[in-house]
Amino acid sequence: MTGPHQLPAVSTKFRVGKKFVCEMSFGPSGLACEWSPRVPDHLSKKDLRTYRQRRDMLLAEVAALIGAPVGVADGRGCGFVMSVIRPEDAAQAEGRA
Description:
This protein is α+β, with helices and mostly antiparallel strands and 97 residues long. It has helices at 45-66, 89-96; strands spanning 10-16, 20-27, 30-36, 70-76, 79-85.
């Protein structure tokens, strides 16, 4: 297993709906997410689905790099939903890209 200080940086940039662009990266300092032109106040169900799919594709790549699952906590309503992204999810995500 590779330590976080030895990982190559991975990143992705994608549109979310008509108004926003999200740039997400993972490197030695962890996960970073930048929105342009600003962080959205609200996303439609379709745009939220797009964001989560692209985020999960990046995290699947990270899981493959470290050889271990990555946990994700999504805020939904008044609580959180936990999911696990496994290294083998990276190959499946490539097929959807």
